[in-house]
Fold these 2 entries.
Entry 1:
Amino acid sequence: MQMLAKFLRAVLKALANPRLAAGLVIVVLLILIGVVGPFFVDVRNADPISVKTNLPPSPKHWLGTDSGGRELLAVIVVGTPQTLRMGALAGLIGVLIGTGLGLIAGYFGGWLDRIISAVTDTMLTIPPLAILLVVAAAVRAINVETMALIIASLSWMYATRVIRAQVLTLREQSYVQMARLSGMGSFRIMFREILPNMVPIAFASLVGAVSAAILSGMALEVLGLGPQNTPTLGMTIYWALLYSAFSRGMWWWWTPPMLILMLLFVSLFLISSALDDFANPRLRSAK
Amino acid sequence: MTWSYVLRRLAMFVAVLWLAVTVNFIVPRMAPGDPTAAVLEQLLSRGQQVQGAADIVASYRARFGLDDPILIQYGRYILNTFRLDLGTSISYFPQSVSRAILGALPWTIGLLAVSTAIAFLFGSLIGALIAWPGSPRFVKSFAPFLMVLSAIPYYLLALVILYVFAIWTGWFPLGGAYTSQASGLSFSNLADLLYHAFLPALSIVLAGIGFWALGMRGAMVGVLGEDYLTLAEAKGLPPGRIFFGYAMRNALLPQVTALAIALGTAASGSVLVEVAFSYPGVGYLLYNALRSSDYFLIQGVAFFLVLTVAVSVLVLDLIYPLLDPRIRRQ
């Protein structure tokens, strides 16, 4: 009970940060599109050839229709949660791998640390798109889940770095040394003593990883390597450009997915920069 | 500069390239089906359209040497990549992959280098001014705007810029890098090049500038608390000299480190910007390769992307000790 009250107070205090609050509100609203939307919009209209093509917005089709015969409001309702799911899945897997590697590298040190750090630094200088391309072009039939897996395999490096640095300082804390002196095993110390203190910073890197994953996914999608039968936001932009919606003046086709993606990136950035302030007190005191 | 530092950086450079080659080697072999099957299938579907289809098929068979043990294939693949022999392009046949890429690479490097340099310099300067207590008030009001800008990806920004400045107002060309085929170095040709490169460059600069400004602000805040700044002020040095020579110079060091890491993202981003503006660099080449499933060309572009970034990172890493004496003495 006391724990819960303490937790709630911490959450309320955190929400006083305008950037965190604004970012969270936007993300929740975007999640709601997929949750509430299907009750008001017929999602079957997101499939090709279900409505008349190339209609501008009207009372019947609020956001108009595209050249493939999809209603764009339905596309947004179906596509937004798909994009969010892909990003969340890839980000979560990436951060889990990163946390594991960071814990091992930071806690054990020595040659394990040297290997993990060298691999992490090496991977960080590789443009992620280069590897994603080769993999995505080889795996032909791609869906949202496989895409998330491919992207996750390249999004663990930042988390590894951040977690490792944090473990290096925590390892020398007196409570960890006490645990070691009392004969606790390495793995118990890592999971029971160090890991719980890592949750805020892991969460901060999760937000960054989700944002990076959505960015990578969008890059694959606009190059035509995305899931061909799922109307994610990136695929909608790809189709709009493929059917030259720009020069045909069909602004209603590409503006909604672009606006939602921009809102998503800005809100995730606001959240992660606010969380960074909590993790990095030097910046906080400067403001 | 110590030798171990140089050797470590060189080892990392080699490791990056080795990783890229290995991914290129392994991935197609892990995909379902024979590695040549996809290519053969495609050639068959084109039938007569490809001149000398039999030649390509033969060259592919010889190239893969599918009966050899996998390790020999791997060794040969590394050797071939090292000699920049990346196979024959299908969509640009009979051009080799390396030739097609080498023709496009200058455009990409030019665009990427110039716009990243501009974004880095201006972003760092703006970030330093935001953190500097003596700068005018309105400079501080840039901060939230820059934050929003740094969050929006290259590609989306490029599409917005393309729509507003090329389609809606028609002030700038829709795409391409030049209007006439007229070669030679004349003033009007140069102006034409700049005119075409302006919007793609603007996208890359705008997308990058916020990142550098925010990073610089953070680094500057750290430097501003140092004692040597107080001493410089007590000595009565002019504020301009303190700002550039004492504060900014030290705050720039972590920015250079960040540059090495951010280059990969910038390269990926500018590839997409090229696609948006049909700019004839490797990004556009890649887009065409993807549309015609030209797998060797896709691999080649990926490899050159890694190579370009790895070379730039190596150069940055080797320059870094000259900027930061602490590393030299380590």
Note: Residues 239-277 of chain B form the longest helix (39 residues).
Entry 2:
Amino acid sequence: MPHDWVKSALRLMNAMAGKTKKVDRVPYFALINEQMLCRVAGVTVKEMLSSPEIYAKAVIGSYEFLEADTIQIPTSYAGPGEALAFAESNDKLDTIRWYDYKPLSIIQGAVCKNEEDIDKLEIPDHSKSSIWKVSTEAANIVNEKTKFPQMFGLGIWSVVQELRGVQAFKDMRKNPELLLKLCEKVYESQLDVFKFWTEKVGFSPMIMLTGYSFNKHMMSFDDAMKFEGQFIKRLQEKTKVPFIFHNCGTSPYFMEACKEIEFAAVNGSHPLDLDYWIKFKESYPNVTIMGANIDVSREMLTGTPQDVEEKVRDNIIALAPGGRYVCSPVCCLPWGVPLGNIMAIPRALEKYGQYPLKIQ
Amino acid sequence: MSEKDNLTNLINVIVDGDEIQASSIAKKALDSGLDYKAILNEGIIKACEEIGQLYEKEEYFLADMLISADALKAAMKVLKPAMEQASEKSPGKILIGTVEGDVHDIGKSLVTSLLQGQGYDVIDLGSEVPPETFAQKALEDNPDIIGLSGLLTVSISKMRETIALLKEKRIDSKIIIGGGVVSKAACVLIGADDCAKDGWEGVKKINRIISSKGGGVV
């Protein structure tokens, strides 16, 4: 039976609005990157990015294969796609590393080695960026074929770290003004992404925000607010689109961040303690939890389909009542995760996630 | 200034991340006739411990650790000639790198700096290191410990491949995997000896392994 993407979109929308009477079951938000697309579609990254048609076909085929309720173009966020856009606009393509079956990457810190590099850093014109062009064209094809509104991603710190590398952390103490100058330029580039995407694909119903600085292993909460949070607030003011706050780190500041910044949803796997997420739901009843404690490097990688199923069931019991819960393993499903474990998620959602919920 | 004051000052400037002062005070201490072993054990190593304690108390974060590690290295650089003259052996040899396909090197850089700052012989292979390079360097240098670092979820499979090759080549160095992506379960699955979720935990575990082998600094 063909995948009903309109039904998926409504399932997601109503679950996020807490309208459980209009939702048949808990939605499934799958995060997959180029690695999984290549695995399912049988193409290399370069082949996939060579044509929006091939790219869109790989995306649709992969998300339908995974029986997900969301579908999106993986390069259209403040990760490798932005790295390539900056490398192109600053004549530093030699800093980019391509792989056959994995997302491209940039040598961290190679674009902004010194103060002069930051001063002269050219903000990408995304309409001229090869990867953003193919991503938006592929998004339009996906949109047309599925009618599922296409979403893109923004972020500040992920790009700062790609451009400045380890020196960004030293700048925080030794030259914070210089670091803020770089953050400002990245902010400008994110506004350009928004403008370009909106022109080419249309209004995004939500924006996936990678807030990687909001992690205790990276920095204090105050520093996260200073070097990323304030820019996120400004992005929200400019875009006026609800943000999904993604952080796949092991010590994220979800609770703290939601006190300062308004998010429609949070997407993370840590803390692993389900009680944290129950408290989160109590504290922020209007913020959708996308994920909770299903982690791709733990039970998804090393467990059995039964382990995954039990984890999904526990999440449903704890977080699905009243809606505003979307099941999601976090972060991107990597190549080494057994297929049986991946498919255990939609199976468990069919089994336990039907509204009205039967399990307690 | 007394010997104790000199060492206290050295600890303070290292903890504060002042590279220039760390180098200058270490030099003054050495010039005043203080034994390099005293400077190392009562100054540099104590500073490293204090940095770790501040991190564990969440008073220090990655940025503070990195600049303190630079100060640690600056002080160590001053001691190096005296240590070499006395034929002082390094407490241990560590081979470290970020696995192939992953360019993230911040955690690895922190571990490298903190270990070098404690006098370890660290061979840093950089990032994106293929399994064959790890194996070749391990055969050449016979390290006590091999550290495989990675941040991306995709790195676990490359760590597994690297460890399989190291075992195939009968390299018996202890293997520690590190990074936000690792877990105890993944560690067991891919055959590593231990894992560390962040740089400081990595340093502590390396110190523990080395001291259990009769070397080390703590």
Note: Chain B has a mean pLDDT of 92.
